[in-house]
């Protein structure tokens, strides 16, 4: 059971988690919700794009440039597998613990 190293970085996991709940999200929305800088988001979004997990689309709203991020089908599948792996890792030990945590 290996966790996907592309998704495993905390900032990337947050990005992918946020994008999994949306069709597409504007760069500023992702940045503000995750409370990270433009440069951190840009760096991690580029890594996810290189892996084929995120599509980055640039355009304009009026005269203002905008950037949108969305998970690709490959990214959605990788995220599902990542979450399933986490559940396998933590699920069994938690189920075996007594209710009082001892």
UniProtKB/TrEMBL annotation:
Chain ranges of the Winged helix DNA-binding domain: 12-90
Superkingdom: Bacteria
PANTHER family: BSL7504 PROTEIN
Name of the featured protein: Transcriptional regulator
Protein source organism: Actinoallomurus liliacearum
């Amino acid at each position: 059971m290996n966790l996907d190293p592309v998704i495993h970085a905390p900032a990337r996991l947050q990005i992918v988690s946020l994008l999994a709940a949306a069709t597409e999200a504007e760069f500023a929305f992702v940045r503000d919700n995750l409370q990270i800088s433009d440069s951190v988001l840009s760096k991690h979004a580029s890594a996810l794009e290189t892996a084929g997990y995120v599509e980055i689309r640039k355009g304009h709203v009026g005269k203002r440039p905008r950037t949108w991020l969305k998970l690709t089908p490959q990214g959605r599948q990788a995220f599902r597998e990542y979450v399933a792996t986490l559940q396998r890792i933590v699920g069994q030990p938690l189920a075996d613990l007594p209710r009082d945590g001892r």
